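I am still getting used to backbone structure tokens and would like to learn alongside you. Label the sequence line and the structure token line clearly, so we can match residues to local backbone shapes. Would you write everything just below, so we can both look at the same thing?
***
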Amino acid sequence: MDNRKDRIHLKLYLTMIFCVVFAIFLTSTILYVNFQSILMKHEYKARLQNMETEKARITKLSNLALSTAYQIMNDISVMKLFAYNNISSIDESAAFLQMRYYLTSVPDIDSIYVYNKNNNRIYNVTNESDLIKSWNPDYDKKDNNFYDSSAVEILNNSDKYLPFIPIPRFYPLDGDSFKCVYSYIMYKTSVKNKERDAVLLNLNREYLFQGFDNQADNIKLVIDQNYKVVYSNSEQFMVTEQLQNSFDPEGNMDERGSGYYLTDINGVRSVVMFTSADKHNWRYISIISYGMLLAQVNRMQAISILITVMIAAAGMLTAHIFSRRLSIPIKSMSKDVKKLQRENLKLHKAARNRKTAELLENGGWDSKGNKITGQEFLSLIEMECSAAKKLVLLCMCPDNYKILLETQGMETLKTYLFAASNILSELLGESTKVFHLDMWNDKNLLFLQWEDNLTAENLREQIKRMQSYVSKYYDISISVLVSRPETDSDRLYDLFEQVEETLTRSIFFGTEYVVFAADMELKSDSHYEYPEHREKQLLENLMSGKAEEAKKSYEEIITETYQYPIIIYNMVVSRLVFAIDKVVSTFKKNGNASSFSGYFVLSNLIQEIDTITVRNKKFYDLFDRIQRELEKRKSDKQELLVIKINDMIEKEYAEASFSLDYLADSVGISTAYMCRLYKLYTGITITDRLSFFRMKKARELLLDTQLSVNEVAERVGYSNSTYFYRVFKKENGVTPKEFRRK
């Protein structure tokens, strides 16, 4: 009895905890899902208000610049420059003085051009020091290589430009440098010629866009109605560049006045916010990284999780207290609750068994044990099967399903699959009947009525077109598996089994595939014989650190399984993983186990994956890692050997009997191999090292002691003093006695 009370109390306790945690989690999830939308709208409104303010300011400045250009054109002195064909030097000088007055009195004017069409002369004043010239009656001829070629282009085609819209352009300064200016052109509108007298007022970019230049937190753009850049604060987009295909290929801006949308710009997911067009038909655009916005959402998520944990802990304590008090009266209700649960479960199963999809999975058997024939099933979906109308099953699968599920969500994926089904149905036309059935979360099943006018090649072509449309408009790829055409309705369930069997081999097909099951000819699994000799060769190559040879052996083993049912491939992979695991275990026992720690995990090579390429790469990476570890161990062993040789030289250099053979015997290798290894690692021979160390000690003894030269020679390992003299002089350039005297 006490045990039953404890169980009731425990169930009640856990139920209350679950309700508290679930309620908090559900609330936090709803808030988190809406945070992104709220943040996007808030960011859009804030930036839109800022851009609208800048738009009003720039429009006001543009009106002032337009008034200035109009004033210059109607100035009496300046007017003479294009009003007369032959102007006196006095009038010309006065006009230049007046233009310089405008240039110095109005801030941010870069230059002023006055063009006289009749005498083909351009009068100009500018603030660029290297372009300022002294006044000359024959100032500049338009066709005589005038330095500002873009201005000449405008003057040659003035009918293409409106007087009240600034024209962004570049002109050369010196060398390869250019300057960006915004030009206002003024001319008599009554003249309809392509080329006519005009005044060109050129403004520095700071005049109109100084406020934008100070805002470097994101990309700011101004574009005209043709998506040509008028202003940019980023080197990523250049003024006068045509940009529609860069960030608005779908024409989002054409469909509304102002707003925002998501798009990929140079591979970066970005939010594009834009205003309505101003009087110049300019739009003001702000581009911000989508990841930057999501960072704020992630912070809110962390806060929500922390609050959830704190409230859940408090809820658990409260639930523990109250559940114990409430458990007694609930005990009497437990039987009724269990009974209701059983009845509810039965109802749920009955409802689920009525689904059409379950008929296929059960081979046509319904929940009552009745066999539904293929013809009856086709009648339910209003289709038929005959020699003239063959039945085909198509299975659509989105590639990279796990990634899409995390980024897009289940409902969005189902929408994409449904859209792909509709696209294919439209491409096939009304003569081909299609029925859509949502069988799995990540796949769709289509019943296709294959009529005589539809060929396998035509069907493949239409599927490829559907895949192209889905990739273009939804940015996902779809793979399609096609069963064999069937004329017998009773073979419907066999077709479904064929589809399921072929799907198990999808690992071999890659992405965006179109596979016809009728084209697949597989050998019986009973004919397969596992190549043990190749496995042995693979393991020998791994033990020897021959990664490339091991990869070749592995590929030969795996490739042979492609022509058999998938069970053969899975069996071979499992066996290879087990064998390779034994190799790695051997390495761990014989060497440093930590070198493979955390790297080789059996499940990493047999877990569910998308393609054969991914799995093969995991094997190849492991082979390369094994080779590197073996080479490292070999290198470490040889390095320790060199250190041991140096230690012996330093300890036993004074022994006259010290020789290469003695040293080789001491370290346990041959003399030739020892000399070759030492020279490879140090760059010098063992004899040179011994001689160098003996000479070093000899110099110390000669300087710090009163020993004779013969005694010094004996102390450093030379039994022959004459040979010591010769070696010392060769190494030091002087004899031992001369060295001591110096």
User: Anything to note?
Assistant: The first strand starts at residue 109 and ends at 116. Residues 138 and 326 are 107 Å apart (CA to CA).
